[in-house]
What we know:
The complex is a heterodimer.
Chain A: H1 24-28, H2 33-39, H3 43-64, H4 68-85, H5 95-111, H6 116-129, H7 159-162, H8 165-176, H9 180-191, H10 196-203, H11 207-228
Helix pairs in contact in A: 3-4, 3-5, 3-9, 4-5, 5-10, 8-11, 9-11
Chain B: H1 3-6, H2 10-15, H3 20-31, H4 34-51, H5 60-76
Amino acid sequence: MSWLSEQGRQPVPQGRRAPLTFGPDVAARRVDPELERLKSGDEAAFEALIRRYHGLMLRLAMTYVRDRGVAEDVVQETWLTFLRSLDRFEGRSSLKAWIFGILTNVAKSKRRKESRILALASFLRVYDADSPRPTVDRGRFRGDGDWIAPPDSWSNVPLAKVLSGETMEQVKAAIEALPVTQREVILLRDVAGLEADEVCQLLSISAANQRVRLHRGRVAVRTRLEDYLR
Amino acid sequence: MRCHEIVELMTEYLEGTLSAGDRAKFEQHLVGCEGCQAYLAQLRTTLRVVSLMPDEPISEPLKAELMRAFRDWRKSA
């Protein structure tokens, strides 16, 4: 159950609890008022937390398990695990990094129980995701590497269109079409707003790998929008 | 650096992870290249739109169940 421990720290060995001291580590730790409210049993704080993260958790869960019902179970199990371990959480990582850490672990353990065909399919997509191919079609550049037809900055596209429901549908479709490795990174970074190092720890990937996946994911969404925002 | 190389470095630029030397070359190129400026603007807009993607609301029965679990947790604490 190592994922119950906070990201990036060694869990305290059984029977050898760390003494309560106020060394530099404790002093450097920011007191999170939201966490304090949750621990004190503030219902409004928990409700706000659910409202803020539930939809995104469902979206992330569906990255790992295809079936919506299973994804809903994953999110529910995540919340229940969150409650079971809330007393032990000391705020060494951010609250959201901790919640999404629980979610990815619950979801991945559920995925292992799904069919072998799905596992093979996602393996092939993972393999493809990290290939070093250029992200912009070489045909858009001249032989010397400069743009043939420079892209449009979208500065003339009305904001109402940029932020419209239809644009959001395009974005959603583009993200859903991404390989799992890119989808999880773009959701955690650009939708959930986790820091780069939090995502590296959570997914056990290097900083460089995280950036490559993020870049490829963002570019794929950009490409979809380029066809749409004219 | 040429445009086709610059576009591959845009996330590293936005993340602030380019080396000082590469960052200087990147910015030097950008100043004189409208195409790459536009591409960077597109990526920034993309990030903004992605971050604003609306969430699906939680179903009322599930929310009620979670709130019940929270109250149970508080009682047992």
